[in-house]
Amino acid sequence: MSEAPAAQDADQDVLVVRQLSDGILRLTLNNPPANALSIAMMDALQAALDDAGSDGDVRVVVIAAAGKVFSAGHDLKELTAHRSDKDRGRAFFEQTMRQCSELMMTITRLPKPVIAEVDGLATAAGCQLVATCDLAICTDTSTFCTPGVNIGLFCSTPMVAVSRAAHRKQAMEMLLTGETIDASTAKEFGLVNRIVPREYLRTVSDKYASSIASKSALTLKIGKEAFYQQIERPLAEAYDYTAWVMTENMLARDAEEGISAFLEKRDPKWSDR
């Protein structure tokens, strides 16, 4: 895979640049400097994720961004422009928030793991995007915040993802103060998995993606769905559910192959079924 950022050679009019190599689909938000989650940007990212979900060649997705800002969240100019609508913007505001929520749910429901590759600021819905991804790797100069409280607009939808990724009181600290946190604090809070120097970001994210892409696609699909299903359930119900999942998983061809390969001390050959 090329080490150059995908967006460099791409048409600047393309809001989300797609690059597929060795089962890894790299989606680069390509509208710097803010990479705002405008309606158009969300449309483009939604379409790319929908395609990825049904594409058998895609085994893992990496979401990156061009420029110095990963994403500044919703486009406030776009939102403000609709205050002159007859309903003072209500319909457009509702469309924006619902569309963003659906985008985040798509990431959670996608049958392939999604990694956020962050270099720069991730704020408001941009921070929500990072928190929603299954894994997040960032540079040591990346920063994160949910600053809505500072402008009279509490980050309520970002709160859903942030409060599920970070510890409760630390999520509330971000939401109530609106203050920007650095990469180490974000890792401490639980928003990111790894912090690396900028020059190693692509290498590390590719390493994680390649490792995941080498697994059975069926097993990853089963595991990701089970993770998000069980985490919202009471303990006993979670165990009942996951016991059923593991039974069904044991009956899959890939589980039979994987266990046989382990016992026979050889590499498994996945059929993704």
Please give a structural write-up.
There is one protein chain. The two termini are 27 Å apart. Strands 1-2-3-5-7-10 form a six-stranded mixed sheet, with helices on both faces. The chain is built from eleven helices and ten strands. The chain has helices at 39-54, 76-81, 90-109, 125-132, 156-165, 168-177, 183-189, 201-213, 217-230, 235-250, 253-263; strands spanning 16-21, 24-29, 60-65, 69-71, 114-118, 121-123, 135-139, 143-145, 181-182, 194-196. It has two domains: 6-213, 2-enoyl-CoA Hydratase, Chain A, domain 1 (Alpha-Beta Complex); 217-263, Lyase 2-enoyl-coa Hydratase, Chain  A, domain 2, CATH 1.10.12. The protein is an alpha/beta fold. The model is unreliable at 1-10 (pLDDT under 50). Strand 1 (16-21) and strand 2 (24-29) form a beta hairpin. This is Enoyl-CoA hydratase domain-containing protein 3, mitochondrial. GO terms for molecular function: enoyl-CoA hydratase activity. May play a role in fatty acid biosynthesis and insulin sensitivity.
Shape: globular
CATH architecture of the largest domain: Alpha-Beta Complex
Separation of the first and last Cα atoms: 27 Å
Q: What number of structural domains do the residues give?
A: 2
Name of the CATH first level of the largest domain: Alpha Beta
Secondary-structure element order, as H and E?
EEHEEHHEEHEEHHEHEHHHH
Q: Radius of gyration in whole Å, from Cα?
A: 19 Å
Strand count, sense and barrel status of the largest sheet are: 6 strands, mixed
Mean pLDDT: 95
Helix/strand-derived class? alpha/beta
Give the spatial strand order of the biggest sheet: 1-2-3-5-7-10
Strand content: 15-25%
Discrete helix count? 11
Could you give the count of β-strands? 10
Approximate helicity band: 40-55%
Keywords: Fatty acid metabolism, Lipid metabolism, Lyase, Transit peptide
Pfam family, one: ECH_1
Organism: Hoeflea poritis
InterPro entries: ClpP/crotonase-like_dom_sf, Enoyl-CoA_hydra/iso, Enoyl-CoA_hydra_C, Mitochondrial_ECH-domain
